[in-house]
């Protein structure tokens, strides 16, 4: 059995921009289910925030009966919840859209996975109460700056509808993989919203405000919105749940191979249910075979898969992978085109040559 890549050299993130810092994971180097912080992709709209004494306290205000400010120590003392989950940028794979779209040209590595530990938001609300007219929770971050479309200064802020905010697995996290959350990934507190794209999991959480209407901040109503029409905003709708998806980690695209036996490997994930099946095609989609799943699929986390390929003939091959989840969602042959390039989940495809 041939393995595609083994090395003592440690991989590094792939830089897209430095200010703000945006770097993606070399997805083909990931082994196992937990991504070390050094290989955790970085997605920022602004420069990293500065620390202050108030950084360690979290106020919950607005339409609650008893507004309260929680300290880090308060959160540590409350019942905790740990969730192993995929965190995927909604722009992951944007660089694969044809024709090309404007925005950060992510390839396949704006995705990570780890174990987040914290307190359910609904647990915190047991200490504040909730007014009946409450409709949304607004999560304000400490990072701020100018947007390209405005001269105004904005904090990164996003909202969740009350139903999603009160799900038990929506947590205020303070640990990642059994360590304090790394600063570049939201220390000391980060909202974690399993099943939704990463923009919902607000980093460097500053304040939570409960409101009785729809939040209209620019990262809610301009960005992170699907625009299916190029010329106008007709039919727009918000980016929320992660689409069913898969990625081939080995072999690499455009790799030269010798005749022999290879283990094709990859990951698959979804925001809705669990992965139930991964199929692979060696002949550009003409025929499909079922892959071996590494373990039982878990809610929120990716699953590793593999397929043993006997490469007995020389030539060029188009290898494809296609995931199906427990809700019946299947990767489409073509991506859902949208003007800002969110949610790419077309059937995965690479090309290799056997010499």
UniProtKB/TrEMBL annotation:
Presence of keyword Metal-binding: yes
Domain Moybdenum cofactor oxidoreductase dimerisation: 240-354
Gene Ontology annotations of biological process type: sulfur compound metabolic process
InterPro entries given in the database record: Ig_E-set, MoCF_OxRdtse_dimer, Mopterin_OxRdtase_euk, OxRdtase_Mopterin-bd_dom, OxRdtase_Mopterin-bd_sf
GO MF assignments: heme binding; molybdenum ion binding; molybdopterin cofactor binding; sulfite oxidase activity
Cofactor(s) recorded in Swiss-Prot or TrEMBL: Mo-molybdopterin
Listed Pfam families: Mo-co_dimer, Oxidored_molyb
Keyword Oxidoreductase: yes
Domain Oxidoreductase molybdopterin-binding: 45-218
Keywords from the UniProt entry: Metal-binding, Molybdenum, Oxidoreductase
Recorded superkingdom: Bacteria
PANTHER family with a match to the protein in the record: SULFITE OXIDASE, MITOCHONDRIAL (PTHR19372:SF7), SULFITE REDUCTASE (PTHR19372)
Protein name: Sulfite oxidase
Provenance organism: Neobacillus cucumis
